[in-house]
Amino acid sequence: MDRKKNFDGVKAEDIVETYCFLSGKWYGNLFFDKISYKSMTDGPFPEKPYRQKYLLASDSIFREDVIFKRWNNNEKSNQ
């Protein structure tokens, strides 16, 4: 795998259909068709994050090494 290969982005000839124009940064302003949906100055994203009631079995906190580390058993955690 060549990790030094650059991604040139989406080429105009690859576009089949356009729904809206998205621009901005995930940590800054986010625009859909030049309408701001998230802004550092205007407040948070309209969708509020919430804590899940139940965790998925694939959640990393269920890994054995993490559990042993939490129990301060570094030897078992490193194994």
Walk me through what this model shows.
The protein has 79 residues and is of the alpha+beta class. The chain has one domain (12-43, 51-78). It is built from two helices and three strands. The protein has helices spanning 64-70, 74-78, and strands at residues 22-24, 30-32, 35-38. A three-stranded antiparallel beta sheet has the order 1-2-3, with no helix packed on it. A hairpin with a 2-residue loop joins strand 2 and strand 3 (35-38). The two termini are 29 Å apart. The model has no long low-confidence stretch (mean pLDDT 77).
Strand and helix order = EEEHH
User: What is the C-alpha radius of gyration, as a whole number of Å?
Assistant: 21 Å
| Biggest sheet features | 3 strands, antiparallel
Structural class: alpha+beta
Q: Please, how many helices?
A: 2
Count of beta strands: 3
Q: Which strand order does the major sheet show?
A: 1-2-3
From the spread of the alpha carbons, the general shape counts as: elongated
Distance between the termini: 29 Å
Number of separate structural domains: 1
Briefly summarize what is shown.
This protein is α+β, with helices and mostly antiparallel strands.
